[in-house]
Write a structure and sequence with these properties.
The protein is α/β, with parallel strands linked by helices. The longest helix is centred in the N-terminal third of the chain and has 11 residues.
Length: 164
């Protein structure tokens, strides 16, 4: 079964009236070059509910956020990789710079964002909390960064092991 959805398909599958008591968790990001920090964050998010939906920035929004040369991996391939994870129940690609519209439409029970985001800057917080949901800051996994991986590749630096 395809777990890459449009917003409309995600609402039909995971909208409030379709949950049947399941707790839906939402997180989002670019997920350009996946690394252990991404995996641990996704697994943590999934542990907070019964279904995890991942909002994926489209190629055009990644370019606007990260600059030329990004993303390295096209959106459909990034979505396919994410959808293959056991902890991910659905992926939806969005074009906006933020997932505000997606979050307001889905109203997840739990919104998860990396702990490097200040709580008052988490997009969608007000919508989720107003609907009775909660916002969780996921612990940042030190030593992992797509930007740093790309810098090492460009600089020809040898691979190093991040601390577990």
């Amino acid at each position: 079964m395809n777990s890459i959805f449009t917003l409309e398909q995600a609402i039909l599958r995971f909208g409030r009236e379709k949950r049947n008591g399941r707790r839906v968790v939402f997180t989002n990001g670019c997920f350009d070059l996946l690394h252990p920090g991404h995996i641990r964050s996704l697994e943590h998010a999934r542990s907070l509910g019964d279904a995890l939906i991942v909002g994926l920035n489209s190629d055009s929004s990644v370019r606007q956020l990260k600059g030329e040369g990004r993303p390295v991996i096209p959106e459909r391939e990034r979505a396919e990789i994410l959808a293959a994870f056991e902890c991910v129940d659905g992926v939806l690609i969005f074009d906006d710079l933020t997932p505000q519209r997606v979050i307001a439409a889905l109203l997840p029970d739990v919104l998860v964002k990396g702990g490097d985001w200040p709580g008052d800057k988490i997009v969608g917080r007000e919508d989720v909390e107003a609907a009775g949901g909660r916002v969780v800051s996921a612990p940042v996994v030190a030593g992992y960064s797509t930007t740093e991986i790309l810098k090492k590749i460009r600089d020809g630096a040898p691979a190093s092991r991040a601390k577990s």
